[in-house]
Every structure is written in C-alpha cells, then in structure tokens.
Amino acid sequence: EKTGKVLGEFCRCYKEQYGVSLFNSVRYEIEGNGGLQAQLLHRKLPLEDHVIYSGNIFQYIEENKKWRNRFCVVPHNYGLVLYENKLAYERELPPRVLVNSAGYKILTSVDQYLELVNNSLPGVTPKSGHSPILKCPTDFPLILWHPYARHYYFCVMTGKEQEKWRAVFQDCVRHCNNGISEDSRVEAPAFTDAVRMYRQSKEQYGTWDMLCGNETQVLSNLVMEELLPELRSTIGPRLKGKAPERQRTWIQISDAVYRMVYEQTNAQYDAAMARCEQERPQLESTIRTDMDQIITSKEHLASKIRAFVLPKAEVCVRNHVQPYISSILEALMTPTSQGFAEVREVFFKEVTDMNMNVVNEGGLEKLAEYMEKLSHLAFHPVKMQSCYEKMDQLKLEGLQQRFDVSSTSVFKQRAQIHMRQQMDDAVYTFETLLHQELGKLHGKDDLCKSIQRILERVLKKFDYDSSTVRKKFFREALLQITIPFLLKKLAPTCKGELAKFQELIFEDFASFILVENTYEEVVLQSVMKDIMQAVKEAAVQRKHNLYRDSMVMHNSDPNLHLLGEGIPIDWGEEYPGQAEPEPAADRRRRAKQVVSVIQDDEGALPYEMGTEALLQPRSPGPREPQEPGPGAPPSSPDAVMEIREALAQESLGDGVEPSVQHATPESPKARGDVPPEAEVPHVPPASPAPGAESPSLATGTVCHQPSAQEMGEGMTPLQPRGTTESGEGVQTEF
Questions:
Q1: CA 645 to CA 623: how far, in whole Å?
Q2: CB within 8 A of 281, min separation 6: which ones?
Q3: In this structure, what DSSP letter does residue 317 have?
Q4: pLDDT (tens digit, 9 = 90+) per residue, 359-386?
Q5: pLDDT tens digit string along 693-724?
Q6: Where does the PH domain start and stop, copy by copy (predicted)?
Q7: Cβ 591 vs Cβ 703: under 8 Å
C-alpha cells in the first residue's frame, strides 16, 4: 500500500518532468550551447572485457553461523560475485552471492557496526556482558552496512590486507552509487528532478544521502524512508528474545520488506517509463513544430514570476547566503584541488617509472607489458586511494547545519568520480599519442625522449582540463548547497502564490512549461551571479592552480580527437614481446585483470591454497596443531592463531562435510551468534595490489568470465533461493 501511494505521487511528478526534460533536450540540440572542448581524450569503454579483481576472503554465513572461505570476482560493472572457491569459478559453476554495493557503507570496526545496529532499533541495546550480534575471529573485519537491506560480513588476516580490500570496496560503492546514467539527456534529468520535487512536496529540502544506485534502488529508498519508521513503531515492541536476537530479527524484517518494495517499485517504474516513451514521438513533434512559441510563452511566465519573487529572493541571498559563499568555496577548494594535484602526481610518477623500466629492461619489448598496466591506472583502487582520501578532509562544520546539508558524502563522492575520470583521460591521451609515435622511433634513447615529451604535453592538457572540471564542480556544489536553503526560506511567502501563474501557460504547452520549475530557475538566477563571481575571483587569484575563464587553450593537436575515435589500442596483441602467440578463442576467454591478488607481502596467507587442496576432503577427526610458517602473521591474544588455523583448515573441507564445525570449541572468539542469511541487494568488490602476480587470474590461466546474469545484469530480482549440497542457498541481488 505504501509503495503504491509513494510511486503514484512520484510517477505523476516524473510525467511532468519528462515533458520539461524533453523540451530542454531538443532545445539544447537545436541551439547547441556547448561548453569548452576538453583537451584530453575520453575513453568510451575503459573496462571492457576486464576483471578488476579476484581473490579469497572470509565471509560470515548467517544460516549456519560459520565463517567460510570464498573466492570473489569483481567484474567490470563493480558488482561483487562470490564463488564457493576458485575451482568453482574456473568450472563456470553458479556463484554463491551476487551483490550490488549501492547505498552501503564500509566499516572496518565491529564497534562501529554495533553502534549503527543499536541505533537502528531504539530502546534495544544488549546489556554489558551479553553476547553481541556479531563476533569476528580476526582483528580485521570488513562489514557492509545498509540502512534497509541485509548486511554482509567479511574478514581478513592482516591490517595491510584490510586496507587494500577497503579501498576496493569503497571504489565499488562509489561506482554503484553513481548508477543513473548521465548519457541520457531526457530520462536522467527527469528522474532526478522528479525525486527532488517529490521530496520538496514533503518539506524535505537539501541533499539526500540515499540518492544512490539505479532508478529502482533510489525509488525503493524513497519508499523505505517513509515506511521504515512506521514499521519500527509497529513491529519493534512485538519482537521477542534477548536484545541481539531482536536486532537480528529486525535486520531480517527490514531486508525482506526492502526486497518486496524493490520488486513492486521496479514493476511500477517500468510501466511509467513505458507510458512516457509511448507519448514521446507526439511530444517531440509538438516541440519541434512550436519551439519558438514555447520559448516565448516560457519567457513571459518567467518575467511575471521574476517580478514577484526576485525582490524577496535577493534580500534572502544578501542576508543569509552571500556572506557564506566564500567560506563554502574555500572549504570545497582545498581538499578537491589537493586530490586533483595527487592525481597529477600519481600519473607523473607511474609514467616516469615506466619510462625508466622500459629503458633499463629492453625497450619496445617491455613497453607493451607496462602500457597494459598503465592503461587501467584510473581503475586501480589501491593506487588511486591516495587521491581519493584527500576528500576526507572536506568539512563544512557550522555551514553544514546552517544550510541543512545532511552529509558531505555527496560532494566527496562526486569529486572522486571526477578524479578517476581525469586520470583515465590523461592515461588514454598519453596512450594515443605514444602509439602514434612508435612507428617513428629508433632505439631506447628515442623511446625515452618521446615518452618524456608526450608526458609534458599531456600534463599541460591535464592542468587545463582539471581547472575546467573543478570550477564546474565548485559551481554545482555551491548551487546544491544554497538553492534548497533558499527554496525553504522563501516557501512560506512565495510557494502558496504560485498557483495564480498557472493561467499564463497555454494549454498546448502545459506539458513543457511548469510554474514550479520556472520559479526555481528564478531563484537560481538570484544567487548564480554571486557564485560565478566567487569562483571567478578564485581563478583570478590563481588559487589552487585554477585558470581564468578568459584563458582558452586552443587545441594544439587538431587531429588528436580524430585519433581518439579509432579502434582501442590492445598493447598485448600489437606488441606481444617474446610471448608465444595464443589462439584468439583463448584470449577472449581469459579475463584481463586490472589488479593482482590482494596478499600480504610478507608471505602467503594461511587460506591461499591451491585448487588441489580445495578438492581434498578432510578427516573429521581432531588435528594436531601446526607450527606457523616463517611468513605467518604474528601471534595475537585470545587464541586468534588457533582460530585462524581452524579457518584455514576449514577451507579444505568447505562444503564437503557440513557437520564438521568451523572453529574449535575452545576458542570463544570463533563462536558467533548471527541470524540466518536473508537474500538482498549487492555489495562491493575488492581489488589487489599491483606488485604481485595473481594466482587467480595469472597470465595463461583460462578463467570463466561471469555472464551478464552472474553479474546481476538483466536479472529478475528476487529469484527463488536455490538449494545446494551445503544448504546455504544462492543469494540474489537487486
């Protein structure tokens, strides 16, 4: 009932915004108001046919309350695919878990997790001395927490491993949160505007943390935002058992409701989309026929609203916004510009190191190997982490409360996405220019000088594009912060009077001109001048290496963008070096991996075992304790070594003898009381360190690439649970 009510109101908003968005798109197409042309090239399909990471990690299975060793694969879509083991992956067996990490938070502390769980069900807190909802057998957990969906529990053996996995998981969350395609000039703006209008109709202004994932996920979050408090007040008091058990039950209930909401939302949104698409040809025909009249009618309406609203808006801007614009801008500029400077530094270092290695190790023969690694630098979560973490410094402090900004995560994530894109543009431009030069080079010296010269050219282009991207980001962020604040301030005196302007719109044009949208445009104009001026002054003062707007870098490479339209460069195929040629079919089947397996540099982890060992059934009898090898991690209190040993040995018989317990009864840390696992949305993947070769996807190993279904693409959500020999069931994603 709640889903139907929310979706009914939203679909009405969406239909209205669809016509406005279609008009804006056609107008943009006709008038061609394009911005400055970027100097760097843009890669169209950066991760096609690549796997970002694959490796082993322990997962907590809620059905049997055990920790299991899993082999996880992170495909190009940043989903997380968990298999029984590496052999199951290579044999193309169905995965155990498919996860999409949109909306999740990555936690590296059980205490952090318990605090969030305690807050999710007020009044239910375990008493001191009672067993908490989750115990971790090592000191290095990785927990994926969602306010509505199920939670995922992982752990690793070392702190270094934990940091690397955390970087990968965060990259997956960042990518999956950005799930609404920006390529669409009609559907995407219509959707985001409809969400904003719906929330404003409920007196909810400002940024929204759960505007993440694809359209159906966002709408499910919209429903749950209203539904969950009602469920909590109705069901919470009726939950039975001790506090941890009630918390587990509540998580399962929330997850089950979220999946039901998702399924219903998906069907209703698809139906609304289909209706709009069906009407599109007629709407577009009207727009193209009557474009001039529609523009004239809209300008007439805007002039009337401007005369009514602008005086009030300007007073509000002058008193409540203008004094704080420079403070907000400075708070945004410092961490963002440091992050982009770090992107430049990482790119410079990687290319310089490659240049030295190529010269020292054999020239062109080694070039392909290093360029293959460099080409995916932007998608290497560990190497990019130093850039991303600069945004952690972003603090709006008192400004955050003044302007009703619930969290800075929206701005951090957006800046990080820009960083990754700029890095990939720089790498792709470098690749393209170097590839063009290779035919003219003779010997190592020529190659070294050419690489250095191209690097300098690309860095100049990067500096210019970086300035352009950051200035646009600052303007958009300032608008995101100030516009909702102004709308909320002006609502009591202005919003009730807007209905009288409806009569100024011709009925034939009512699908393309909305009073509410025009009113917001007038409010935006009232503050836009101050925002533009603040960013311009920062550029004039050369703060943070920003360029003036008047500085236009004319394209010094007129044919460069033509080169970017060509066939993507395959360095391994064009310059194979000394390697034996392999059949094309094998090349297609073997997944190329961006990052090698995450492992401790000091030695192999106890659970990194070969596929032969995984096939050997273990004896159910007692085992003799084994002496740790020279590369084993140091001992720790509370019998952690015994637990680790038990976990490592468990992986030998995982799924073979379900009756055998995972951890020894003597080790209290190994006994975790956690509820049965409920099926839910997705979780983030992991990516390893660049230095080591990947035992999972090493060169020459033929591996199964997850199909579209395995990666959650095109899946019908909420398939019935499958049964397996171990009885755990296959968890499906949203």
A1: 10
A2: none
A3: I
A4: 887 667 778 888 888 988 999 999 999 9
A5: 333 333 333 344 444 444 433 333 333 333 33
A6: 50-174
A7: yes
> pLDDT tens, 315-327?
999 999 999 999 9
Q: Report the domain count for the chain.
A: 2
pTM over 0.85: no
Residue 503 included in any domain: no
CA distances from 588 to 339, 582, 702 (A): 36, 10, 9
What's the rounded Cα separation, in Å, for the pair 282 and 440? 56
Asked if residue 142 belongs to a domain, the reply is yes
| Residue entry with tokens 């009512």 | 510
588 alpha-carbon distance from chain centroid: 27
Range of the domain at 64: 51-177
Whether 633 is covered by a domain: the verdict is no
Question: CA–CA separation, 706 vs 713, rounded Å?
Answer: 10
Which of 234, 279, 272, 273 shows the shortest CA–CA distance to 253? Answer: 234
C-beta of residue 259 within 8 angstroms of C-beta of residue 684: no
Q: What is the DSSP letter of 153?
A: E
Residue 59 pLDDT exceeds 60: yes
Residue 609 corresponds to which tokens in the numbers above? 């075992």
Dist CA 473 CA 464 (whole Å): 14
Q: Taking Cα atoms as reference points, which of 3, 689, 678 lies closest to residue 384?
A: 689
Are the CB atoms for 598 and 686 separated by under 8 Å? yes
Residue 237 within a domain: no
Res 631: pLDDT: 39
Closest C-alpha to 16, from 440, 514, 713: 514
Shortest CA distance to 98 belongs to which of 125, 70, 117, 124? 70
The amino acid that residue 344 corresponds to is: R
What is residue 350's predicted lDDT score, i.e. its pLDDT? 95
Read off the CATH number of the domain in which 62 is found.
2.30.29.30
Phi, psi angle pair for 609, to nearest 5° = -120, 160
**DSSP labels for 62-99?**
TTTTEEEEEEEEEETT--EEEESSHHHHHTTPPPSEEE
**CA geometry: angle 148, 716, 69, nearest 5 deg:** 65
CA dist 171 and 685 (Å) reads: 8
Identify the helix (H) or strand (E) that includes residue 55: strand 50-61
Q: pLDDT digits over 550-588, tens only?
A: 665 555 565 565 555 556 666 665 665 544 444 544 443
Integer Cα distance of 680 and 258 in angstroms: 8
User: Is pLDDT at 415 greater than 90 in this prediction?
Assistant: yes
Q: Are 143 and 117 in contact (CB under 8 A)?
A: no
